[in-house]
TrEMBL record:
Membrane-topology annotation of the record: Multi-pass membrane protein
Record-annotated Ammonium transporter AmtB-like domain positions: 7-389
PROSITE patterns to which the protein is assigned, alphabetical: AMMONIUM_TRANSP
Subcellular location: Cell membrane; Membrane
Keyword presence, Transmembrane helix: yes
Similarity annotation: Belongs to the ammonia transporter channel (TC 1.A.11.2) family.
Protein name (database record): Ammonium transporter
Length: 393
């Protein structure tokens, strides 16, 4: 065990949890109507709780068990069977590696929340998120990070797909799942009401930005120069994408908005995530500059041309950003084109198929969408019996 590595990953674990609670909750919560903000908080918080338990029970062993098939890790580490405080994973206590990866298993299904806010049934959120994490996310983790068939020595030869911190594992899977759910749900009855609290959006985005240092820097799994470089390029990509999004907004619409500026931040962060261990500062500037424009144009394509109500633009920002960053690894010569594109296609097809199956299965168990009256009145009061803002108190 290395004490410095262990100390850094303990901090990184806290930072990644901070991304979901409270960062993502505030970012998403500020973007919805005032009558739905508590439901967004509820979704993020409940997902964090449920994924933690499921990761302990089955998720970790599916992703990082000792199975040799290349498809999944087996069940030998259910409930951390055989893992003690003295067990090691590289230079880290294995229980710490488990906890660090648990925070990724929390935020990935939580990202999907943005696609279905303001109209989804709470039961569906819990059942679908739990099944999706176990049957879609955890196997993909094994394929790429757990020594599976897409990793080094797998179907792409000695050098497998390069995905440093989750462009494919986190952002492509969550983005595609979000798009599928939004398609099946159908649009909200009222899509024109603006975000109720842009201040929340900015605060949440700022928390995500800080937390992302643990997300990308921690993925080095060591306290060394590689972690420092990953942290640095993460910051530079986020800063550049924020400005390029705002500039493109100004050129197209005559005004640059706060919500646009901070959405650009998230686009830059998602785009640099897979490449953060393989590129330097100049490449990070390029990735961020393109991401701010590319993801904004994808928002317009999905909203206006495809007419899919991915409410908070999960696919356009996270999905497209993660896919773009994964491709840029090959563009900059840090990965093989066949491996990068091949893994994107394989994981994409798998994610779409599993998500469609789970949406249909979950809809047979619990209501996919709330009724019109509940949607009109807001999920806070109709589903959870609470109001975020009581003006009479």
């Amino acid at each position: 065990m290395n004490g410095a590595d262990t100390a850094w990953i303990i901090v990184a674990t806290a930072l990644v949890l901070f991304m979901t609670l409270p960062g993502l909750a505030l970012f998403y919560g500020g973007l919805v109507r005032a009558r739905n903000v508590l439901s967004v908080f509820m979704h993020c918080y409940a997902i964090a709780c449920l994924m933690s338990i499921l990761w302990l029970a089955f998720g970790y062993t599916i992703a990082f068990g000792n199975g040799t098939s290349g498809l999944w890790g087996g069940l030998d580490k259910m409930f951390l069977n055989g893992v003690t405080a003295d067990s090691l994973s590289g230079t880290l206590p294995e229980v710490l590696f488990f906890a660090f990866q648990m925070t990724f298993a929390i935020i990935t299904p939580a990202l999907i929340v943005g696609a279905y806010v303001e109209r989804v049934g709470f039961g569906f959120v819990l059942v679908f998120s739990g099944l999706w994490m176990l049957l879609c996310y955890a196997p993909v983790v094994h394929w790429i990070w757990g020594g599976g068939f897409l990793a080094d020595g797998g179907i792409f030869g000695e050098t497998g797909v390069k995905d440093f911190a989750g462009g494919i594992v986190v952002h492509e899977t969550a983005g595609l799942a979000a798009l599928i759910i939004a398609f099946f749900l159908g649009p909200r009855k009222n899509r024109t009401i603006p975000p109720h609290n842009p201040g929340y959006v900015m605060i949440g985005a700022a928390m995500l930005w800080v937390g992302w240092f643990g997300f990308n820097g921690g993925s080095q799994l060591a306290a060394d120069g590689g972690a420092a470089m990953a942290l640095t390029v993460t910051h530079l990509s986020a800063a550049t994408a924020s400005l390029s999004w705002a500039l493109w907004e100004k050129i197209k619409y005559g005004k640059a908005s706060l919500v646009g500026l901070v959405t650009g931040t998230i686009a830059g962060l998602a785009s640099i995530t897979p490449a953060s261990g393989f590129v330097g500062p100049v490449e990070a500037l390029i990735i961020g500059a393109v991401a701010g424009v590319l993801c904004q144009e994808m928002v317009n394509l999905i909203r206006n041309r495809m007419q899919i109500d991915d409410t908070l633009d999960v696919f356009a920002v996270h999905g497209v950003g993660g896919i773009f960053g994964t491709i840029m690894i090959a563009v900059f010569g840090a990965g093989a084109w066949a491996a990068q594109l091949g893994a994107l296609v394989i994981v994409g097809i798998f994610t779409v198929a599993v998500t469609i199956l789970l949406v249909k299965l979950t809809a047979a168990i619990t209501s996919l969408r709330v009724d019109l009256e509940s949607e009109t009145n807001g999920l806070d009061l109709s589903v959870h019996g609470e109001r975020a803002y009581d003006m009479n108190s």
